[in-house]
């Protein structure tokens, strides 16, 4: 795709994926693909401005209601929307309602006038993906229709060979690690028609799988540190994003 656009501002909306979990920085904060993309765009555009309204744990209705209107009012050249996965991964989910709220959010952002980018979220190999695959694929099929109506660019991370590799995912098995986020930033960069830095979807080098003992140890650590707390939040109606402000709520100059 050759778009040959020069972007001077970028606003990102969504959930933990766009917030940057789990691309951790030394101070305990998260970087992530959106920050990486902003830094790369800023390097060639003096005065470049960036906002990131994403908050972990948000459902698509919350994203549409809380983030999309403010993002559209910023009038950025570039806007990204990724959401709905937190909805479809829940035990009960009205996929039709998720699709409808996603379209509402996309329509709001499109009215802001910037180039809209949508993404099919990546999926990690394993039983969780297989269980929820029909819901995800129904949402992603609708996403294509939304993109066609609003002239949006679609970045297909779900179909990636590399991003399904467990080695690109964090210990929580829900979020990409630093290398995974770097590849997503490169994928979006290329989808915008900008010169490729590398093959973001290149498979990782082959490696011997971990032994039985190592797998069991990892499974127990995952259950203790991530699965049990996640289940507790679901049972009590809490979210990891409750009370948490947007990552970067104002469209301000981004210092490289």
UniProtKB/TrEMBL annotation:
Residues 12-183 form the SGNH hydrolase-type esterase domain. SUPFAM superfamilies: SGNH hydrolase. It comes from the Bacteria. Residues 234-256 are annotated as: Disordered. Pfam families: Lipase_GDSL_2 (PF13472). This is Lipase.
């Amino acid at each position: 795709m050759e778009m040959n656009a020069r972007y001077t501002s970028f606003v990102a909306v969504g959930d933990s994926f766009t917030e940057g979990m789990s691309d951790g920085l030394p101070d305990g904060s998260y970087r992530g693909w959106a920050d990486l993309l902003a830094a790369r765009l800023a390097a060639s555009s003096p005065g470049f401005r960036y906002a990131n309204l994403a908050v972990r744990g948000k459902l698509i209705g919350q994203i549409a209601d809380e983030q999309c209107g403010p993002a559209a009012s910023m009038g950025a050249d570039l806007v990204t929307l990724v959401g709905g996965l937190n909805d479809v991964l829940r035990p009960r989910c009205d996929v039709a309602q998720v699709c409808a709220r996603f379209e509402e959010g996309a329509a709001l952002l499109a009215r802001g006038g910037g180039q809209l980018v949508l993404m099919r979220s990546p999926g990690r190999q394993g039983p969780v993906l297989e269980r929820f695959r029909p819901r995800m694929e129904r949402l992603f099929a609708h996403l294509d229709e939304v993109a066609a109506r609003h002239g949006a660019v679609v970045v297909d991370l779900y179909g990636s060979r590399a991003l399904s590799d467990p080695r690109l995912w964090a210990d929580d098995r829900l979020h990409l690690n630093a290398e995974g986020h770097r590849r997503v930033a490169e994928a979006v960069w290329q989808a915008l028609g900008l010169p490729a830095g590398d093959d973001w979807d290149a498979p990782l080098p082959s490696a011997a799988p971990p032994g039985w003992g190592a797998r069991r140890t990892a499974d127990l650590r995952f259950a203790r540190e991530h699965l049990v707390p996640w289940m507790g939040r679901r049972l009590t109606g809490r979210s990891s994003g409750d009370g948490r402000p947007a990552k970067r709520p104002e469209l301000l100059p981004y210092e490289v």
